[in-house]
Design goal:
The structure holds two protein chains of two kinds. Chain A is α+β, with helices and mostly antiparallel strands. In chain A, 23% of the residues lie in helices and 25% in strands. By secondary structure, chain B is an alpha/beta fold. The radius of gyration of chain B is 27 Å and the shape is globular. The chains are: A alpha+beta, B alpha/beta.
Chain lengths: 426, 502
């Protein structure tokens, strides 16, 4: 469960829950069938928090915001449905317009004070989260938190069940929403079954490394874990902190994500010795999918990288080259995820140490009143024990934000390794 | 609850033989036009006689009557005097110029699934009560587009006084703005203002709230009726009618609504959870006038209004009773005998209104049947007058599916007659006193309201009351109409299954 659930300890108070949905009634009997890949991701939840300053958000009342969400859900009404199981046990979404949960909260800090905290993972408090279950038909798939800061700034936090769609879908939906807030008309085309198949299926992968089966969780969709996972989020400048590790070869197209992933992988390998993370998962936008994201689905590419020699001794360049040759495992995952009528439970994030690349998404395009957000935070809930590193764009184009979720016992040592190599300021 | 199990209404036995039908038709024609039929032979005889006599003989006859100036003057004065007394003492005709119904914002929509999920979360310790609510909702006849006020959307609901006032302002001011636009009425021209809202009565009153908002005149005659239940709209019309008899050349604005926010039951007693499932946001604003100048643009004319109160009987008085439950939650307790009591109240009302509206043929039949049962054989089936002959349209208060079923059965109405009521229940839920106006709006939106059509509005309310009003349409209402049905009328009528599987 997310940090925000600790009652009375978080900085958010006066929380009020309500429900928002679509304005039109969906036809009775409409359903949405998850694919195998969707089912494989069911124990994960994607989270994002957008912070807006008072100049942009002062006049946005709860009514405005709710009206805009209603218009958004008119386009994607199926996401307001609920999960039911067929007689075979296979989960599906019944499009009954039940709605998304809307949480209003207040915070006693100003936006400035909040953003001055060095570890950006405090933004976890801005995202209300509850897992799906223990009763599937009464569990919302989306939670939206609207936090009002002392200075009248606003934060919007989204918690989004991965079974519906990937991070790119989440950002797409949020961008549509802020467009409505700014008064624009939106239109989201319906996602057909064909759209939901991924390009370039790679049928050769039979035993994908990036997915791991876990003990049955029944109807409470929480990733089972023996270790307490903690998150840490920091900014870094590409040129200052990364170039020392990867000499520029005159090419101005440096693969920032791959280098960053390589550096972090190496440092985690130094800390995590037994067993060493020889295989990692890379999750990013499908490079073959040239169309801009215009639908809610799991389209992210999930690929696996394996090295034979110890990672801690490899150079960053070697690791980067391996990462560039990662194998797309989605076909295998789709097959496994849908096997046994979706009754098996798996994890993908944290099955192996995973790196998610969201840097191609322009998060700061989500403008309210013509102004970009001050800060955007991304993470995933329900990560497996191997951990996850999310890399995404910062407000400044030469910076990146890294959100790391690792077992508590490793985090401090990993942080000190980062300080040693200059990724974090000492 | 027993009173909610419904059996399909038995269709009146379509005459086995057409001969039977023609006999009945002939009888009705004979009795209803009795005087006309009597007059025709008399006129024919007189005409023949006059023809026979010829003009000279007629003049001789007239001269022999010895009229002189005095006689003529006195007779003229008498005629003028009698006519004047007649016209002066005739009650003023009350015209319904126009009315408007509140259309809730779409953000207030409550689909079934949402209602049930909230119910589970709010009554987390009472699964049996949640189960009960679900069964009620399945059979309620409500649709997926009914609306609850914003405060009730919270988990748990936050029924503060501020929220209640906000709801009142939203529903009432929206309806009134719409009424001003439709009728061109200026706020300063309102002479009488009557507001009825049963369960929310703040100080200053809702009528004072309206006067404040629209800056109405200081000599306005304002009234605020509270606690009078779902039939209060017709009570307001009655009061307005009486006031308009006393004040010439005036108009009256009636606002009928029910504010849901402060009355959402937060406990777990089953008999008191029922209103939560059925009552929804709604309001109507109506403009009545006794000015002759409004005769041309008015939509309806008020013909009759009958109020029946059964409160003298304990059974009726206690059947809809607001009280605290064991945990001090306030709610409205609906008695199991509600339908039976409603039926009796209806019979009372019909007995009074029948003679006013039924054609002579029906009244004669009813009288004969009554005498027959009293004198000859009590086992004779009571004759139920055919009200379909007296009215073209019926607006039965959408109190719940059971109410509509019961009345359809008692009055032997077809599905088409109760369509307005059923569809209003489906689209808007039970909006209490304003539901009659949503139903009337439905009939207009469907293009069924023609000039000369008579509408019968029947409402039930706590007390126990049965009030009914008869309106006559002044002009044919053209479609499309502007109103709460404008964006969805094409989807109606819908088929409403007996049990909706949630």
């Amino acid at each position: 469960m997310g940090r925000s659930q600790e009652k009375g300890q978080g900085p958010i108070y006066n929380m009020r829950l309500s429900t928002v949905g679509a304005t039109r009634a969906t036809e009775t009997g409409t359903t949405h069938e998850p694919t195998g890949l969707d089912l494989a991701m069911k124990l994960h939840y994607l989270k994002a928090a957008y912070i807006y300053t008072p100049e942009m958000a002062r006049d946005l009342s709860v009514t405005h915001v709710k009206e805009a969400i209603f218009k958004l859900f008119d386009q994607i009404a199926w996401t307001t449905g609920r999960l039911w199981r067929r007689d075979s046990g296979r989960p599906y979404i019944k499009c009954n317009d039940c709605g998304a949960r809307f949480v209003e909260g207040k915070c006693n800090f100003t936006v400035e004070e909040w953003l001055s905290k060095p570890d950006r993972s405090v933004d976890e408090f801005l995202v209300y989260h509850q897992p799906v279950g223990p009763e599937l038909p009464f569990s919302p798939l989306i939670y939206v938190q609207m936090t009002r800061f002392k200075c009248r700034g606003l934060a919007f936090g989204l918690s989004w069940a991965n079974i519906m769609g990937d991070s790119f879908s989440l950002f797409y939906a949020f961008n549509l929403w802020v467009k409505v807030l700014s008064g624009e008309k939106i239109y989201a085309p319906e996602t057909s079954i064909i759209d939901r198949r991924f390009q370039n299926p790679n049928p050769t992968v039979k035993d994908p490394e990036s997915i791991k089966q876990v003990d049955p969780v029944g109807d409470l969709w929480i990733t089972p874990s023996n270790k307490k996972m903690v998150s840490y989020c920091f900014n870094l400048t590409v040129t200052d902190q990364m170039s020392p590790h990867f000499p520029a070869n005159g090419d101005d197209q440096i693969p920032v994500f791959e280098i960053l992933a390589g550096i972090i992988w190496k440092n985690i390998a130094k800390v995590r010795e037994d067993p060493e993370p020889l295989t990692v998962t890379i999750i990013r936008k499908d490079p073959n999918d040239l169309k801009p994201i215009r639908s809610i689905r799991n389209s992210q590419m999930i690929s696996s990288v394996h090295v034979d020699s110890p990672v801690a001794e490899a150079t960053v360049e070697e690791l980067v080259r391996c990462i560039e040759r990662a194998t797309d495992e989605r076909c295998g995952i789709d097959e496994i995820g849908g096997s046994c009528d979706g009754s098996l439970d798996f994890i993908v994030y944290g099955a192996k140490l995973a790196f998610m690349d969201l840097s191609e998404v322009d998060l700061y395009e989500a403008k309210v009143m013509g102004k970009s957000p001050e800060s955007v935070y991304c993470n995933v809930e329900g990560i497996g024990e191997e951990g996850l590193v999310v890399v995404y764009a910062a407000a400044k184009s030469e910076e990146r934000v890294v959100t790391m979720t690792l077992p508590e016992e490793e985090m401090e040592r990993v942080k000190s390794e980062f300080k040693k190599c200059g990724l974090i300021a000492p | 609850a027993k009173h909610l199990t419904m059996s399909p209404p038995k269709m009146p036995d379509l005459s086995t033989s057409t001969k039977h039908k023609y006999v009945k038709l002939g009888y009705q024609y004979l009795v209803n036009n009795f005087l006309t039929l009597l007059l025709i032979p008399i006129l024919a005889y007189t005409a023949l006689e006059l023809f026979r006599m010829g003009p000279e003989e007629i003049l001789n006859h007239l001269n022999s009557l010895n009229f002189n100036l005095l006689h003529i003057l006195c007779s003229s004065f008498l005629i003028i005097f009698v006519s004047t007394v007649y016209f002066m003492s005739k009650p003023r005709t009350i015209y319904l110029v126009d009315y408007s119904c509140f259309k809730p914002p779409v953000t207030c929509r409550v689909p079934f699934a949402t209602f049930m999920e909230h119910s589970r979360l709010n009554l987390i310790d009472s699964p049996k009560s949640v189960e009960f609510q679900m069964r009620i909702l399945e059979r309620s006849g409500l649709g997926e587009e009914t609306c609850l006020p914003p405060a009730i959307h919270y988990i748990p609901p936050t029924p503060t006084m501020d929220a209640a006032r906000s709801e009142a302002e939203l529903v009432i001011f929206t309806a009134m703005d719409d009424l001003f636009k439709k009728t061109g009425l200026k706020p300063k021209d309102i002479d009488i203002l009557i507001v009825n809202c049963s369960l929310f009565s703040p100080t200053p009153s809702l009528s004072a709230m309206i006067i404040n908002k629209y800056k109405l005149r200081s000599n306005i005659k304002s009234l605020n009726l509270s606690g009078m239940g779902c039939s209060a709209s017709l009570i307001s019309v009655d009061v307005a009618r009486d006031l308009l008899q006393v004040h010439p050349n005036s108009n009256a604005v009636i606002v009928s609504t029910e504010i849901i926010t402060p009355n959402y039951y937060q406990g777990k007693e089953r008999a008191m959870l029922l209103p939560n499932c059925l009552f929804r946001m709604g309001a109507a604003a109506i403009l009545l006038s006794n000015r002759r100048s409004d005769r041309w643009r008015a939509k309806y004319k008020l013909c009759h209004l009958v109020r029946t109160h059964r409160g003298a009987e304990d059974k009726s008085y206690y059947c809809v009773y607001q009280q605290e439950d064991d945990e001090s939650h306030v709610g409205i307790n609906l008695n199991k005998d509600l339908m039976a009591i409603a039926g009796e109240a209806l019979k009372s009302n019909i007995t009074t209104i029948g003679p006013l509206v039924l054609p002579a043929s029906e009244q004669l039949l009813f009288l004969t049947s009554l005498i027959g049962r009293k004198i000859f054989n009590a086992k004779w089936k009571p004759y139920i007058p055919d009200f379909k002959m007296a009215f073209e349209h019926f607006c039965i208060h959408a109190g719940g599916r059971a109410v509509i079923d019961e009345l359809q059965k008692n009055l032997q109405l077809s599905a088409e007659h109760v369509e307005a009521s059923r569809m209003t229940l489906h689209r808007f839920g039970n909006t209490s006193s304003s539901s009659l106006w949503y139903e009337l709006s439905y009939i207009e939106a469907k293009g069924k309201m023609k000039r000369g059509d008579r509408v019968w509005q029947i409402a039930f309310g706590s007390g126990f009351k049965c009030n009914s009003a008869v309106w006559k349409s002044n002009r044919t209402i053209k479609t499309p109409t502007e109103g709460p049905w404008s964006d969805c009328i094409d989807r109606y009528p819908v088929f409403i299954p007996e049990v909706v599987k949630l």
